[in-house]
Design a protein that fits this description.
Elements (H helix, E strand, L loop, with lengths): L1 H17 L1 H10 L5 H34 L5 H27 L4 H6 L4 H35 L3 H13 L2 H17 L6 H28 L5 H9 L1 H9 L3 H11 L2 H43 L5 H9 L4 H15 L1 H28 L4 H9 L6 H13 L16 H6 L4 H16 L1 H14 L3 H28 L8 H6 L2 H24 L5 H32 L3
Length: 563
């Protein structure tokens, strides 16, 4: 009975999270907006066709390198570790929102359900959501490697089961950290935001400590003894690179071993996963309900303003743009899902560059990313335009500009009633988005300095150039969100992660970068790198001239409409 109740709850949460019933009614029964699924499938098909040659070339190079070391299955472990890193960074943003800030929690808490049943159903929802990371990042390497090398049944069984469960361990690890931490932190007024901040810092600190330990163990000068050890058993050096995340070692052993040994390592991986799940349920029984209720009581215990504080608040004068800018920041930080999606998305790419770059450089040019970094030395003359595109990739992944109205939701009614112009609203929102977008180019510049020792002049130029390009792309995405905002959402994650405008922004970003790379390849014979950089930045700068008035007029017309 309990199992059927848990299954029913999980299916209900999945249905609500993805809007399956609403989509079935709209597409199959009412036959409305049929262009949406075709658009999604078309975009996915274009991305697959575009990225397939690049991915195939990368896999061929990696397989060739690791096959010489007698460890071609290391390719699987490498992509497994990358997907796990994405799971850690993205999953943390989802976990806290779903566990503590989801709007369905008051209803679930009123039902005759145990905390373990609620939390396990929500973990299943998060894992299902995060499994798309493994499908996108690991499925093709898994199939291509097995077919190219002709690996045995052990690889196919172990690899498939590990692929399906790859995101469970990161989610469980973060949940095990967050649940006790939610009872330790007692910061009163800003407890919800600080719970997010401390949890992020705690998990990132653990990852950085592992990086430091890994680099300490494998870096340094290549002595004669180390070189002899590498020739005798190169897999020991390879496994040191995976020690940043021990489950990657278990995954590598499971897909590379034969017979019962492979099944034994697979059993080890799945047993640790099951043990982590049981520990999570134990902690949920002790901490989850109390933490959630205390977090909600914060609003009822909040002290009222004194007469002096109220007078000061009323008499304080601000310009419309400044007042709207402060409102934007407070609303952004008040919804942790927005804050950490916006900030986290621009940090993912540079952090992964630093994380895997430092690990692979310590292994030398034998590693895949280390070989890529070595090859980049030959492109140092093109560092200015290429660095600009790296900054654009990092800063353009924030999803803030493509959801700048969608994130308002029901609060848009309040924005419409304020005695301010569309220009003031757009200026405040644009400044807020631009400041957050700059985190991407800044961290990308730091990553390039660490990885390729780029000159500061090139880095400064790349930072300025990427800022101009990101501003140009932000305006285009804002126009799209004005034309078709998603305002009817009950979970902040839906406003960003399940918004078609966000998908469009991803296509726009990668299309822009691919187009620039293609033009650079075609013009490399008669355009210098400096001219490429000037042309790229100049076009984006001039693009602001028509886009700014178009955005203002579009927003003005939208605010005059009835919602």
């Amino acid at each position: 009975m309990r199992h059927s109740r848990w299954i029913s709850l999980t299916l209900t949460l999945l249905n609500e999270h993805y809007g399956i019933s609403r989509k079935r009614q709209r597409y199959l029964v009412d036959r409305k907006d049929l262009w949406e699924p075709f658009l999604i499938f078309g975009i996915v098909a274009v991305l697959i066709v575009t990225l397939f040659p690049l991915m195939k070339t990368l896999l061929d190079q990696m397989i060739a390198v690791y096959a010489q070391m007698g460890a071609p299955e290391m390719v699987y472990a490498y992509f497994f570790m990358i997907c796990s890193a994405f799971g850690f960074l993205v999953g943390l943003l989802v976990i806290l929102s779903v566990f503590f800030f989801s709007k369905d929690l008051p209803l679930l808490m009123s039902l005759p359900l145990k905390p373990t049943e609620i939390l396990s159903a929500k973990i299943a929802l998060i894992v299902f959501d995060q499994t798309w990371i493994s499908i996108v990042g690991l499925l093709f390497p898994y199939i291509y490697l097995g077919a190219r090398i002709g690996l045995g049944w052990e690889y196919w069984i172990s690899g498939f089961l590990i692929l399906l469960s790859a995101q469970i361990l990161p989610i469980l690890f973060e949940t095990i950290v967050i649940l006790p931490l939610s009872r330790v932190i007692r910061f009163g007024k800003h407890r919800d935001f600080l719970l997010f901040s401390v949890s992020v810092l705690f998990v990132v600190a653990i990852l950085l400590i592992n990086v430091a330990i890994t680099n300490t163990g494998v870096s340094g000068e290549l002595t004669e003894e180390t070189f002899r050890e590498f020739l005798e058993n190169p897999q020991n050096i390879i496994l040191k690179g995976l020690s940043i995340y021990p489950p990657a070692i278990w995954a590598y052993r499971a897909v590379s071993a034969k017979g019962m040994v492979s099944l034994g390592w697979l059993a080890c991986f799945l047993s640790v996963t099951a043990g982590g799940f049981l520990l999570t349920l134990f902690l949920a029984n002790r901490f989850y309900l109390a933490s959630y209720l205390e977090l909600q009581d914060r609003h009822t215990r909040k002290s009222l303003l004194t007469r002096a504080e109220l007078d000061h608040s009323i008499r304080r004068e601000r310009s419309p743009v400044r007042a709207l800018f402060i409102r934007e920041w407070r609303y952004f930080l008040r919804i942790p899902a927005f804050a950490f999606n916006g900030i986290g998305n621009v940090l993912i790419f540079p952090i992964l560059l630093i994380l895997f770059g430092s690990t692979n450089k310590s292994l030398g040019s034998a590693s895949s990313l280390g070989a890529i970094i070595t090859n980049l030395e030959s492109l140092r003359a093109y560092l200015l335009p290429l660095g600009t595109l790296v900054g654009v990739l990092a800063g353009g992944m924030n999803l803030l500009s493509s959801t700048f109205l969608s994130r308002e939701g029901r609060m848009l009614t309040e924005l419409k009633t304020l005695p301010v112009s569309a220009k003031d609203i757009l200026t405040a929102k644009y400044l807020h988005i631009f400041i957050l977008s700059e985190i991407g180019p800044l961290t990308a510049v730091i990553a390039m300095r660490i990885l390729v020792q780029a000159a500061w002049g090139d880095l400064l130029g790349a930072f300025i150039g990427s800022s101009v390009c990101i501003s140009f792309l932000n305006l285009i995405q804002m126009i799209v969100d004005i034309k078709r905002p998603m305002l009817d959402w009950d979970n902040p994650q839906k406003a960003m992660k399940q918004n078609l405008n966000g998908l469009f922004s991803v296509v726009l970003l990668f299309g822009f970068i691919a187009g620039c790379l293609g033009m650079g390849w075609l013009t490399q014979g008669f355009l210098s790198p400096l001219m490429m950089f000037a042309l790229l930045v100049g076009v984006c700068a001039l693009g602001h001239i028509p886009l700014i008035p178009i955005t203002i007029s579009s927003l003005d017309r939208f605010l005059l409409k009835d919602l």
